[in-house]
Amino acid sequence: MSLVQLTAVQRRRLRGQLRHAGDANHYRRILAVLELDRGKAVAEVAELLQVARQSIYNWAGAFAAGADPTALQSHYGEGRPSAWTDALRALLVASLPRRPDELGYPGLNWTVPLLQEHLHRRGGRWLSDDTIRRELDRLGYVWKRFRYVLPPDPEREKKTRDPAAAAGVAAA
Fold first, then answer.
1. Rounded to an integer, what distance in angstroms lies between the CA atom of residue 11 and that of residue 17?
2. Does residue 74 surpass a pLDDT of 80?
């Protein structure tokens, strides 16, 4: 007895899907179910398609659960749900035009750690700095990391062999 037994309608639908399969993986899965229906052994179908036997069992089980060719399609890209809620996004968008010192924070410009603290206090959710940066990028905001610039050394002339050359570099 074969692992999959298709009705004539199911067989016809699968053959139609086989002609219009969008990618090779979907094609292989449909072909595996059709070959199982023809009476081929799981090991034989696995060798024919160059996959593990367990994959054939998985595909047959997925098809049997729904008896629908779409059950054999790949479902990529679902991923983890976003940490951003509509209320949190609205809070971020409303906060960016204002200065942090207006909202009681010590600073004149927003930084990612300051936004992180603000969103945690007002939005009740702690977001990573990468998550905030990605959302700022998505919203079209550009930020620049602060670069420390040291003042010129007033003792530079005393530290060089050629004081005239050091004075010229300091003047430039």
1. 10
2. no
